Each structure stands twice: as C-alpha cells, then as structure tokens.
Amino acid sequence: MDAVTQPPKKTNRIGLELATYRGSKTTLCAGCGHNAISERIIDAFYELGTDPKRVIKLSGIGCSSKTPAYFLGGSHGFNAVHGRMPSVATGALLANASLQGIGVSGDGDTGAIGIGQFVHLMRRNLPLVYIIEDNGCYGLTKGQFSPTADVGSKLKNGVVNELPPIDTCALAVELGATFVARSFSGDKKQLLSLLKAALSHRGTVMLDVISPCVTFNDHEGSTKSYAYVKDHDEPVGEVSFVPFFEDISIEYDPGTTKEVQMHDGSRLYLKKVSDDYDPTDKRNAVRTIHETAQRGEFATGILYVEPEKPDFLKLLNIVDEPLALLPTERVRPGREVLTELMDSLR
Ligand SMILES: Cc1ncc(C[n+]2csc(CCOP(=O)(O)OP(=O)(O)O)c2C)c(N)n1
Ligand code: SF4
Ligand SMILES: [Mg+2]
C-alpha cells in the first residue's frame, strides 16, 4: 500500500507545534473560566515563539493555582504555599534571571492570605507576569466570598456581601506595578492580546482576569457571573500588539491611538474608546478604575503601562546567567580582596 503523505504539521517561529505548549488534562469543572485562561496562555506563548524550557510557572493554592499544570508541560514550575507565591517567584528569578516568570494566583490567594506578599511584589517591579484568576470567591473550598467580591453580591444560599472589595488593579497601580490590565476569561481576543503584550513587558505585570466559577458563583445576584460581566465590561481601549519579530507597519491616527514601545522592540497600539483615556497617566488610571466600579462596571484593557522603569533585577545588578552556574572565581572574593578587607577593619 502506498504511504499516505501527511500534510506538514503547523509550527511557530521556533519550529514547535501548539501541542508542545499544552500541559496535563484539566481537572477543573467543565466551563470554569480558569480553563479558558489556560487556553489563551498556551496560544500566547505559542504565537510569541517562546522556548518553554526558558519559562518558570509559579502559583499558590486554589483552583486557579492548579492551572499551571495545564499549560507548558515542559517548563519549570513551583506550586507554593497559599498566598506565598510572590516570595518564591522573587527567589527563583533572582537565582536565575534568564528565566521568564509567569505566576498564577486567585483572588483569595492574592487578596486574603497573600495580600502582604502581593503588596511588596507590586512595589518591587520584579519581571513577572502575575495573573489573578478572579471569581470573587474561594472556589476550591466551596465558594465563600473572597476580598474581591462586590458589595451587594449574593451567594447561592442568599448571603449578601457587605464588605467593600479590594480592587487589585487600583492597588497595583498605586504600589508601582508597571503594567496593569484587566480582562474577562470570556473575551478571547482581548485576553490573548493582553497576554502577548504582558509577556513582552520587562517589569511586574498585574493582570486581573475575571473568571467566573460556574459551580459556586455564576448565578443571578453575583457580580462575577458570565452574564453580569458580559453586560458590564467597559473596555478603556482596543489593544493591538505587534511582536518585535513582525515587521508590520500599522497605519493609525495619532489623535485616537497611542503607540507604546516595549523593551524588546514590540509595539502596542492602544485605540481609545473613551475620549481621554491615556494608559500612561497613573492618576487617571486609578480614577477610571474607581469611577467604573462605582457604576457597577469593570474597566478592561491596559489600564496603566510604564515600559521604561528599571526592574528589580536591574536595580540589584543581578547578572544574566543563573547564579548556580557562575564559576567560583566570579562568586568568591580572592585572597587579596579578603586581606584588604581585613586590613581595613584593623
Ligand atoms: C494556609 C492555608 N489556609 C487556608 C487554606 C484553604 N484554602 C485553600 S484554597 C483557598 C482559597 C482559594 O481561593 P482563590 O485563591 O480565590 O482560588 P479559586 O479556588 O477561587 O480559584 C483556601 C482558603 C489553605 N490551603 N492553606
Ligand atoms: S469550583 Fe469553581 S473555580 Fe473551582 S474548578 Fe469549579 S468552577 Fe472553577
Ligand atoms: Mg477565587
């Protein structure tokens, strides 16, 4: 029998198939928003042509924190203690600055037990893409309210939340994160563009993705349900991303579109939807987040971006090579240096 010629498999710019970017089969509930986010992360890394071996995935505890197992099966990974992923990520990236870090957390993992670590991560500008898969509840422990639940949002059993929410995006902008965005797991196009832009940013990215929990928080009365978020999504601008390896010139009207250069030469085009949204204006970003929240809406898109600020590793003068691979003569002061030091202390 003649051998049937198979069509060549589709690959990306480094010759890898999409399947290489997948992980284990998900064990989350069918329809969970977190699964849609994992799919977009797979697409983003594939389209950017990132070598999975150069990536480290980090997380805490929760349904959301289980998801790094479902993408980039060939990458490094560490599933930390509840709310403690930022310190593990900081240590890992200090020890090996050549890795690209992606952290996945939940609204409980970040906003409750992990809030102290989150605060310090945001002010350090560590080069890490930090994603909150935000469903307004503790999905893994059966749907209790989390600190991002809105006032008036109702649990399935009728309990109403009366505590004010923590807005992780407003907090991140205030604290010094240099790329702050919000999206919705149901908005494939926006989320993919944001992820690709986020992965090209050098500094802390705080990406809050509203991600409905279909089992405990997707009913009428919840402000994190698919139906509610779909109706109350208020994009601040349309995001187009041109990676550094694509030599495309985009025609745009500088009056309505802002071009932002990323550190690796990629370009972001942010088409304004409202009249005056400027994602490089910090005060306006915080005001917009608060004003939309007061109307019961979610401002989505790139809320704040500051591509030039030096990142934490630069500030600390960390070398590009993994510390574990540095030869002894580069990490141990020689006898002369030690003698000089001892003499100075006499
Ligand atoms: C130290 C500690 N305290 C409490 C818990 C119980 N616990 C596990 S996951 C979780 C909350 C998860 O919520 P979130 O981060 O929003 O993730 P989701 O499951 O909603 O994706 C809690 C309280 C734990 N595992 N460890
Ligand atoms: S319990 Fe909720 S958050 Fe957890 S997997 Fe199921 S739908 Fe997703
Ligand atoms: Mg949650």
Helix-strand sequence: HEHEHEHHEEEHEHEHEEEEHEHHH
Task: Sketch the major β-sheet.
Answer: 8 strands, mixed
Bound ligands: thiamine diphosphate, iron/sulfur cluster, magnesium ion
Q: Which residues form runs of ≥5 with pLDDT under 50?
A: none
- Beta content comes to 15-25%
Which structural class matches the secondary elements? alpha/beta
Number of strands: 13
In terms of quaternary structure, the protein is single chain
Strand order of the main beta sheet, please? 2-1-3-4-8-7-13-9
Mean pLDDT: 94
Q: Please, how many helices?
A: 12
Q: Alpha-carbon distance between the termini?
A: 88 Å
Apparent shape: globular
Helix coverage percent of residues? 25-40%
Rg estimate, integer Å: 22 Å
Structure description:
The protein is α/β, with parallel strands linked by helices and 346 residues long. Helix content is 30%, strand content 20%. The protein is globular. The mean pLDDT is 94. The site of magnesium ion has 9 residues, from helix 4 and strand 5. The site of thiamine diphosphate (TPP) has 18 residues, from helix 2, helix 4 and strand 5.
